[in-house]
Structures
1.
Amino acid sequence: MKQIFLDVLPLEKAAQLLLMRAASAFEGLDRTETVDVASSGSLITAEPVFARYSSPFYHSSAMDGYAVKFADTFSASEAVPLHLTTGKDAFYVDTGDPLPEGFNAVVMIEDVNIVGDCIEIYQPLTPYQNVRTIGEDIVSTEMIAPMHHRIRPVDMGAMLASGCLKVKVQKKPVVTIIPTGTELITPQQAEKGLKAPEIIEYNSVVLSSMVDELGGLSVRNPIVKDDFEEIKNAIYEASLTSDIVIVNAGSGRGSEDFTAAAINELGELLINGVSIKPGKPFIAGMVNNKPVLGIPGYPVSAYITFQLFARPLIYKYLGLTPEDPDQITAIVSRNMASPMGVDEFIRVKVGVVKDKYVATPISRGAGLLMSVVRADAMLRIPADSEGIKAGSEAKIDLINSISKINNTIVCIGSHDNTLDLLANALKVKHPELSLSSAHVGSMGGLMALKRSEAHICGTHLLDEETGQYNVPYVNKFFTPGEVVLVTLVHRQQGLIVKKGNPKGIKGIEDLVRDDLLFINRQQGSGTRLLLDKNLRERNINPYLIKGYDREEYTHMSVASAVLTGLCDTGMAIYSAAVALDLAFIPIATERYDIAITAELLNTEKISALLDIIRNDKSFREAVERMGGYDTSSMGETV
Amino acid sequence: MKQIFLDVLPLEKAAQLLLMRAASAFEGLDRTETVDVASSGSLITAEPVFARYSSPFYHSSAMDGYAVKFADTFSASEAVPLHLTTGKDAFYVDTGDPLPEGFNAVVMIEDVNIVGDCIEIYQPLTPYQNVRTIGEDIVSTEMIAPMHHRIRPVDMGAMLASGCLKVKVQKKPVVTIIPTGTELITPQQAEKGLKAPEIIEYNSVVLSSMVDELGGLSVRNPIVKDDFEEIKNAIYEASLTSDIVIVNAGSGRGSEDFTAAAINELGELLINGVSIKPGKPFIAGMVNNKPVLGIPGYPVSAYITFQLFARPLIYKYLGLTPEDPDQITAIVSRNMASPMGVDEFIRVKVGVVKDKYVATPISRGAGLLMSVVRADAMLRIPADSEGIKAGSEAKIDLINSISKINNTIVCIGSHDNTLDLLANALKVKHPELSLSSAHVGSMGGLMALKRSEAHICGTHLLDEETGQYNVPYVNKFFTPGEVVLVTLVHRQQGLIVKKGNPKGIKGIEDLVRDDLLFINRQQGSGTRLLLDKNLRERNINPYLIKGYDREEYTHMSVASAVLTGLCDTGMAIYSAAVALDLAFIPIATERYDIAITAELLNTEKISALLDIIRNDKSFREAVERMGGYDTSSMGETV
């Protein structure tokens, strides 16, 4: 195996190079097939479709009534009704019936009087009155659909109506996805449980679904180990049966990244690294005249490089140009620095606050799939920019629809699992509404509310002086009446300890024990304030606690420090213990409120949310079932 | 069979009544099933999905490098590098590898120097530097997706990543479509050819595709004859196996409309007529506690009543609220009167002209499926309005996307099949661009151009005085330089006669023959002007021609008058003869130009179009293959 190093390419250049090479390879393939119109939905026409027959292909009645010759009816009037003999001068026709030869108008049944074997008519008819003439809808030889048109239900109707029963369409490109990685296991294997270093292989499911959504035909291959020969063979085999091959992971430059070398040995390596973030380790080449894409393993990198490189290839195969994503202009709520020379793609949440779209970045890590799950839109900071200043406008590419964004309540602040249950309860009662949360801590949330980036904020800030929750902080940062506080829950804070509590920790007093190593939360956090208050009340000198000076930044990192043996105990909420299956010693309860921008209180979506908080019994029960929560004050305005 | 007449209901009332009854019927059904996440794409969650494991579920390296304990590295500096023994204080890790227990940071491979069995470090590390901590992406117990959420590829990824391998989803509602009509034949039967009064049954294909697109599971039943008992049986059988039944056609009040009576006998008729246009004969009821919808037979009525009544039921079954269609505000280009008390749905073409969206109505007939095929949007004139004035603004519901509309060249004017070929050639070369035509005649087209409703206009107006085409008219209506004329083709006008020319007509001179019946075009039409010029040149007195005073309004209606024996001959273009398989005697050629708003000449889309007209050989050949066209002046500016 020979390691290959090409220059990292700029995005546009890389995309163009790959598309050009793939396009010329596709041109040599027979990419069309003929199918029944009835099974052609969503396929792409491979040639224009022309009407074979006119529709209607005979003059037919547009009404229930009598077919007549309009020239016979000139003399008809209310004063002197005209009599026409049925079966001779007039024939009964239902809607859709053909007119007898030579007949060219229809008088509606409700406009005639039947007198013996005659009908009486009171008004002259005009030529083709109440008649669907030949070709009224479709004229034979006219074009129903051009080439490269995505066939919609109504197009199928028009094709059939005009006698086109088969249609030549573009074949779906076969896209084979090869997951690689020795540590990967299939979802089926994971049913028995997981142990490190196993990772559930899910990228191939995401990628294949995206292929199918775009009109491709995905094939998911079995997982291939990190072995050069095995990967090489898998790529070669796939290149024989596919139009596009995607290798997932193994595209970096680590000791087990073999894709570039494999492509290089089997064919030609075109791209080995692109100056984008995330997604830099993307590689691509041609094997057997088929494009082979090395998509990075981090899920966000995989998602973004698929959109940038695989999607255009699928469109090109189908004869289409990708539609531009829907764009809106939003106000960016934070400074976002970005290195020059790199196209950076930042997932953002978008809220409509005071009739403006506000885009707030979500954590940027390439490993954070949830940042895509939670994103409303993608913001691209181009290579020639050093970033975007807070308050400036930017174009963003929508992931969720505008109407979904308009119907979303944006919650930024401290996270609590209750918010998840609240989001769900909202969806159950109002499927059109969404509650979407970003987790930045209580203080960050209040600041976001202040900057109009959010509609509501989850907060649990203890004021040391007064012992009050949230109110002193709201009073400090907001003008009176600007924000309303509504209590969601009281929740338990406590000491997280290993399962079975092997060191027999009973409470705060034990923290000074010599055999215990503690881990703390950062200064200013609600949990730190709560701990310090508890220590003061018990007259415990914090500096006697081993590890008091070691700080973590989230409940979960405290819990995982306990789990992995970095320490014996730390303070966090009950749900963090549950999440990692650890034991929990309750110490105190704290009030978790929702701060709401007051002027939104009467909007439909906030009213719906408050109604659930105040009156939805099943929501309340679901919260209580989680454990560690007291819902007795739920919905009270503070 | 007892005929039932209920009051015609207003739209909102009818929609609400049906939805309410269907919703309470659906509530009694088990509408959920559990599926593998990998096959859950686009399905709707039936309960919230909570993470089973954290992801990552162990601390893992985010880089290729060495795992260390950050506390060991405090003293490292460029001046005094720190040495750590590999296999004891430092362990090599690839990206994704778990950290050894007690290790909590990773130094990147490129930042160390390997010295024997030690690594040299030049900077202290921070806690968890280059480490993906437990739950960094997903925390066990956190909500991945709420209930009633449409599962996207990234959601599937997040579910699998967090150990959710199965997901409870809403079942797809089974929607059975029963086509009824004695005259209907299947597309397969139509392969052998069509004869009156046969009609190819296509509505069920359109309706079932729409069902499937919305996430339902459509079943297309065989065609049922217009027979009360057979229709009743078909409805009953379908109600046993379906969640929703759709009967197509037979919903009016004609002699063969049995659906209402059948529903009434089998269950309860709720709706028998709705005050909408088109779609008034819509009916609905409950049979076996299943909603049964009688959708009218006219294709536009079928399309609109499906959207208004069937779509909300499918969403309701799935636990969803239909998303509002994307709306834009457009300037309405024509007066549109609409009766009070009726909600009218008008298909419109939308063009971006001078940065404004202009909506132009397409013919309103309920039988014109092509009016839906060609529509960009739907304009609703509510029941409490008498219509919309030209020049006023209206909200329209988009059928095509905004980006498609932005990329569309709007052509209003005289129709010629060459425009279809041009539209296709444009699609072949520029898949993102579209040429969309509305047919209102040359003069109507020039007026549309004048009112900025169109970008280009097809025109063939002969000036009697000068014998010139188009130029005198453009000079009359536009200021100099406002419009550019580009020749598309010269096309043949001639006499259309029955196949085989049974009366042996040779030319204009024969029109005065006693045994011939002629049919004329309306005064002011280009064809009438051309005929009169030819008569004058031959000194023929028009009033000696039998039928000279009978006028038709289109080429196709002249041709169909010949086909159906109303007359022996009439003047029209060659393609009208081809469309109805008639014979043609060429008389003269006329110039067919495209008038283009001058200020658009350099826009991308018009340039692309002109490039095809001027330089695309295969387009030119396709036009010539149609016959009756001379392309020698194609692309010349007049």
Note: The longest strand of chain A covers residues 483-497.
2.
Amino acid sequence: MVYSRLDVKKVRRYIEDIFQKRGFTETESKDITDVLLMADLYGIESHGIHRMIRYHAAIEEGSIDLNAHPKLVCETPISAVFDAHKTMGQIVSKMGMNLAIEKAKKCGFGIVVMRGASHYGIAGYYAKMAAEQDMIGICMTNTEAIAIPTYGKKAMLGTSPIALCMPADPIDFWFDAATTVVTRGKLEVYGKKEAPLPQGWAADETGADCADASRVLQNIIGKLGGGIFPLGGCSEESGSHKGYGLGIIVELFTAILAGGTTSPHVKNGGNADCSFCFMALDYGICGDKAEIKANMSTLLRELRESPKADGHDRIYTHGEKEMESMRDKLENGIPVNDKTIAELRAIGAQLGLDYDDYFAQ
Amino acid sequence: MVYSRLDVKKVRRYIEDIFQKRGFTETESKDITDVLLMADLYGIESHGIHRMIRYHAAIEEGSIDLNAHPKLVCETPISAVFDAHKTMGQIVSKMGMNLAIEKAKKCGFGIVVMRGASHYGIAGYYAKMAAEQDMIGICMTNTEAIAIPTYGKKAMLGTSPIALCMPADPIDFWFDAATTVVTRGKLEVYGKKEAPLPQGWAADETGADCADASRVLQNIIGKLGGGIFPLGGCSEESGSHKGYGLGIIVELFTAILAGGTTSPHVKNGGNADCSFCFMALDYGICGDKAEIKANMSTLLRELRESPKADGHDRIYTHGEKEMESMRDKLENGIPVNDKTIAELRAIGAQLGLDYDDYFAQ
């Protein structure tokens, strides 16, 4: 695959215009684009504009509904439950986290859960929204089942990401990780390279460790059994039951609290019928915010400055790599592969936008 | 090591009497004993009466202070921060979780954090307290540093356990796990057996994977470098950065929010100067409790009933093994090793209690 670097501002304008042409308002289009581009800027290509084709298809087939509105199911001063009603994941999610933040400003804590939603991009975007308001932000989503329970052979849980962002200097602590060993995207990369999967990543249809990425992916697509192992790998010896348990916790805070569809029953595709959880905690309820933030910054600095293992020259804290990636991409452009560029060109053409008008020098 | 099965009621009476002889009230003695015995009943020997000798030593040397009282540092309707002032960990922790539950009854959510505390036993005990009030309970603690950051070689984080309990039928979801691959206790077992450590468990003083348990333990004790790997093992390929990040999250919710000592600076021994976090969430804020609990029960049942990997005949959900262990121990007694029995006998003798009076047939 060939990659070209595309200027961030140009990409932003093109993607926003696509969503406006689709019928989203200017604000909605900016919001959706901002979520997608944060993934590309942070170096998480799998969750960025690479997914435009999926959103496009979902809107075309009506599984994302532009005319629907999320419905408030129940509410307390610290909480709210919504049925997202097939609305665009990013729009309803920004609303959800903003409401959690508003509740946290009044009560110290806010939790908003949603069911019936379509994919929302990266969980870390919404966690960061709370950190930008000087709060701890937490976000989780369930997804279609792709992970097998410890000693199982059928995918029953999603990748179950947990994102948490806490303000710190000079760089926020920004954690966004699947509670599986890897995500599907990693398997796809190995499949394309025809490289053997590392041990402890994925299981074949018998539940045994499997190095053949294509076989695992075909089994997942065909629902023939097998899937990705929980964080901790294939056995209790390496802690598989811990990642498996964290996956159940994500399911609890999303589908179970929101009254939504649990991962074994979530459909693939555009409107995946996912459930989300957004939490904001104003850490000022625990004392002086400047002091708490300074203590967090000290801990992170001590970790970064602690002695390195032989053969390694750096210890990262979470969010550092993403900040470095963003600086690079803002300066040098976002790397986009030729397949994605072709897709973007076709989507634009269908909506009366000429890709070359945007990206010509 | 030789194990004897001791009757639970007899053990309970003996341990309670020891704590009363030490100067704790009857209620305090019952509370401490209940926490310790839950570990033994659940099959977590390392955190049960096996630790009596450590508590004994800590009280003797004054690093646990029977005459001190926890001090409320600040409070809101949903939160409280305490300085535990060297009080006995179990007593102050039960108070902490009860306060979080009380706040959750009024507001839907409660969070209580504590600093300056001594070891409190198993985190899962306190999470279960909330579940017994039909709430989600969460509990975390930092500890002395024993885990190295990904690509580090100095222990900087604790084992950073996260416990979460959610009511379900027929068995609650009860999750209590270190966010490291294993705990120190596991290394000690391998050290005693002189068995090689599995790959990805622990690092030597250079930060490299090390199979020699005794060497790792000696390094930890001597603070010579190395330690246990985060959940996910020794490299980013297997997800080490995820366990490492979860460890930072535990540090955030304990030492950072409580204004306490972070793991790199926590001392070993009786009064470890730990920080705790207790959270209770009344899941009724998200809808009908019976329905939510039923959905959780269904998810857990579907996981247990899902197809088993070839060569395995059972998939557990978290809490099942512990319930089975408890049934066995209530019927057949708690297995206690001869070294622990000798310690218990000596502690009793020092306080004027005759072990044989309690355990004679």
Note: Residues 71-181+229-285 of chain B form a domain with the Ribosomal Protein S8; Chain: A, domain 1 fold (CATH 3.30.1370.60).
